[in-house]
Design goal:
about 425 residues, 8-stranded mixed sheet, single chain, binds adenosine-5'-triphosphate, 5-stranded mixed sheet, binds magnesium ion, alpha+beta, elongated
Length: about 425
């Protein structure tokens, strides 16, 4: 027998036992962003390749070697989006969404990067992104960081570290870059091949090198914050004061440069040591120059994206469970006639109680009880020949030590409504 076809390497199915965790994360995010006034935007998965080259930067890992780029049938170069910010800003500019107004947006969806697959690093992965446009001051930087902090709290995730840095303005970075390159050239013999190449193309990224042999050299390098002008210093100081006042702890990390070129001033990451090398669960920053770079008017922007797989992995590592998803019952239908009556009865219940989880079963008595047990249902609604004749239904408690009861079919909707309301009063531990 040949092996059945497999999913593409680095791209994963989310199996039914996992989807409740995804749904819970999505529900928490939805509620939270709504509370802070962010509106959802749904964006295409495919964009023109130019968009990413112009925004993320030609000399970044993503653009150099990670994009899924292809020519379509018209020979236009298209790319599966590797991240969401570029497409979001493209849409904002295209539709004038930030024209003389502030715009708070969020999105979610799959992103694609041709990286080496490993734990927490996939070729298709899911991001949830939150972006704000039209606000140049540090208050929105603080708002986004506080929103992300609150999300961890709502998800029951403790122990993440907030790393914070400022990258200044492009002009400040040019001055710094000269000093950094001068320093690195003095020690060029110690640089690895990748860093030697970056010395020409993107020297700031050398600061982000994961090569332990470079750690000492990088630690002694000039620091960008020493090259900031007064405005950038003040922006950063005000952000820190806001976070201090709100009681959010952070670590200033002058080596935090981020893998995309478009950032200006504030950058941040939420990291964990529970996931090994893939320790960043959420990352973001300000990108005030990007709208111009894409040919639009000057619109300040800031945002972050979290990697849903990594957030869920942290929850799993912390032993978080999903909430119970409500009362669940099975209709056991014993015999062909019972299958007709059972179907009608189930449809009546679906009409009367839309929130009830109810499924009909067929098969031998033994098989139906086995199915009911596996399904996790707490009630079995049994329709056998006796019940059919008497117009009744027998209710058996599958998870409780309680005697079964027989009621008339007319009473069933009320009975189930009552059971549902008791279930809703149960304490639901996460
Ligand atoms: P990393 O340093 O881990 O490569 P990054 O800086 O490339 O991350 P961003 O582009 O900032 O990541 O994306 C935001 C978030 O998306 C990351 O913090 C991470 O949680 C998630 N993410 C990025 N790349 C992947 C991937 N290949 N697989 C799974 N999640 C990812
Ligand atoms: Mg990366």
């Amino acid at each position: 027998m040949t092996k059945p076809l497999q999913a593409v390497r680095g791209m994963h199915d989310v199996l039914p036992e996992q989807t409740p965790y995804w749904q819970q994360l999505e529900a928490e995010v939805r509620q939270l962003v709504r509370a802070y006034g962010y509106a959802e935007i749904r964006l295409p998965i495919v964009e023109s390749t130019t968009l990413f080259k112009r925004s993320i930067g030609a000399a970044t890992d993503i653009v150099e070697k990670e994009m899924y780029t292809f020519a379509d049938r018209n020979e236009d170069s298209l790319t599966l989006r590797p991240e969401g910010t570029a497409g979001c800003l493209r849409a904002v500019l295209q539709h004038g969404l930030a024209h003389n107004q502030v715009q708070r947006l969020w999105y979610q969806g799959p992103m694609f990067r041709h990286e080496r697959p490993q734990q927490g690093r996939y070729r298709q992965f899911q991001q949830i992104g939150v972006e704000a446009y039209g606000l140049p001051g540090p208050a929105i930087d603080a708002e986004l960081i506080l929103l992300s902090a609150r999300l961890w709290e709502r998800l029951g995730i403790q122990g993440l570290t907030l790393q914070l840095n400022t990258l200044g303005t492009p002009a400040e970075r040019v001055r710094y870059r000269e000093q950094l390159v001068a320093y690195l050239i003095q020690h060029v013999g110690q640089l690895d091949a990748d860093s030697q190449r970056r010395l020409q193309t993107n020297p700031l990224r050398i600061l982000d090198s994961k090569n332990p042999a470079l750690a000492k050299l990088i630690a002694a390098a000039p620091v960008l914050t020493d090259y900031l002008a007064a405005d950038s210093q003040a922006h950063f100081a005000q952000l820190r004061a806001m976070l201090d006042a709100a009681g959010v702890a952070y670590v200033i990390n002058p080596r935090l440069v981020r893998g995309l070129d478009y950032y200006t001033r504030t950058v941040f990451e939420w990291t964990t040591d529970l996931l090994g090398a893939q320790g960043t669960v959420c990352a973001g920053g300000r990108y005030d120059g990007l709208a111009r770079q894409l040919g639009g008017r000057d619109i300040p922007g800031i945002g972050f994206a979290l990697g849903a797989e990594r957030v869920l992995a942290v929850q799993a590592a912390l032993g978080k469970k999903t909430r119970s998803s409500g009362l669940h019952a099975c209709v056991l239908m014993l015999g062909t006639e019972a299958e007709i009556a059972g179907l009608v009865l189930s449809e009546q219940l679906h009409t009367a109680l839309p929130q009830l989880r109810l499924q009909t079963l067929v098969g031998s008595v033994k098989s139906q009880f086995r199915q009911a047990d596996r399904s996790g249902a707490s009630l079995a609604l049994i329709l056998g020949s006796d019940e059919l004749v008497a117009g009744t239904v027998t209710i058996k408690y599958l998870r409780q030590d309680r005697a079964q009861v027989t009621i008339t079919q007319d009473q069933l909707a009320d009975f189930m409504r009552d059971a549902l309301s008791h279930d809703a009063n149960d304490t639901r531990a996460i």
